[in-house]
Amino acid sequence: MSDRDGFIWQDGKLVPWREATTHVLTHSLHYGMGVFEGVRAYKTESGTAIFRLKEHTERLFRSAHIFQMQMPYSQEELNEAQKEVIRANKLESGYLRPLAFYGSEKMGVSPKGAKVHVIIAAWPWGAYLGEEGMQRGIRIKTSSYTRHHVNITMVRAKASGNYMNSILANNEATTDGYDEALLLDPEGYACEGAGENLFIVKKGKLYTPDLTACLEGITRATVMQLAGELGIEVIEKRITRDEVYCADEAFFTGTAAEVTPIRELDNRQIGPGHRGPITKALQEKYFDVVYGRSAAHADWLAHV
Ligand code: PMP
Questions:
Q1: Contact 247/256 with Cβ under 8 angstroms?
Q2: For domain 7-123, which architecture applies?
Q3: What are the extents of the domains in the chain?
């Protein structure tokens, strides 16, 4: 990823991609304390637009607040910088990665005395779980790794260190030939994927785990709202893994994963074993909104 043309926004200015580096004694590299976002920009008929930019930046600042990181820029500055990065890299669509981290000013667990640095990179990125997965649905496996307990780390924060858990789970599942992992919460209820929120459909209603242990996904909130507009009732509740086995449909949501159908959990086929009608309807509505084909929710698109 480091050897390519383009520009990365680093601490307030655009620097050539290959020169956007940091010292090996970067605090966050050693102790994992950083907060970040994953944001997508789509090519709409009226130009490239970043989807729900404001909400992503707000979550970035909430993540920083949780970990008492002092952000050296305002939300407005980082929103403008993200647009600038898309323009500078001449991207019509792509994935944006803002990251705030502690620099190399000091070592030792306490970050006090280390500076908060901010970078924003952007690059083209297709379907996260594969084009085929978007159409046919993916196969997932319950992880032997549990999603974080709420008093072990702060699960509302999209924080770098939290992703060791996701990496363990995703590695285990993909090494065994599955597309993604399903993590259970510490009490054994279905929680989320390594980088996605979970939904199931049963008898025409949509269910998703409550937010206790999972990330407050922006795609999750988007899909819940779109489902409501389609007249589909959405219920947030604890979900057991056997409820997922017996669901009519299941899907993951995420900025990277968008709306990805799940066709199998733990080698049990879910419903008909392919993308179901409600998943398809929500997937279509989601893409209509992000690509600006729907007049509704134009306010979710930040044109660059
Ligand atoms: N859960 C986890 C653990 C994630 O990493 C992500 C991706 N940010 C999500 C859920 C989905 O969140 P969003 O829809 O905001 O991308």
A1: no
A2: 2-Layer Sandwich (3.30)
A3: 7-123, 131-290
Write the DSSP string, 81-127. Answer: HHHHHHHHTT-SSEEEEEEEEE-TT--SS--TTPPEEEEEEEE----
List, in sequence order, every beta strand (DSSP E) within 238-290: 249-254, 258-265, 268-269
CATH number belonging to domain 131-290: 3.20.10.10
Question: Is 158 an active-site residue?
Answer: yes
| Pocket residue to mutate for ligand 1, from 58, 158, 160, 216, most atoms within 8 A of Cβ | 158
Q: Which two tokens stand for residue 104?
A: 């190399």
Q: Which residues of the chain have pLDDT under 50?
A: none
Give the model confidence (pLDDT) of 161-208 as tens digits.
999 999 999 999 999 999 999 999 999 999 999 999 999 999 999 999
Tell me how far apart the alpha carbons of residues 27 and 109 are, in angstroms, rounded to a whole number: 8
- Residue 228 is predicted with a pLDDT of 98
Answer yes or no: are the C-beta atoms of 275 and 263 closer than 8 Å. Answer: yes
Which residue is it, tokens 């992703």? 163
Calculate Rg over the CA atoms of the chain: 19
Q: Ligand 1 centroid to 304 CA: how many Å?
A: 23
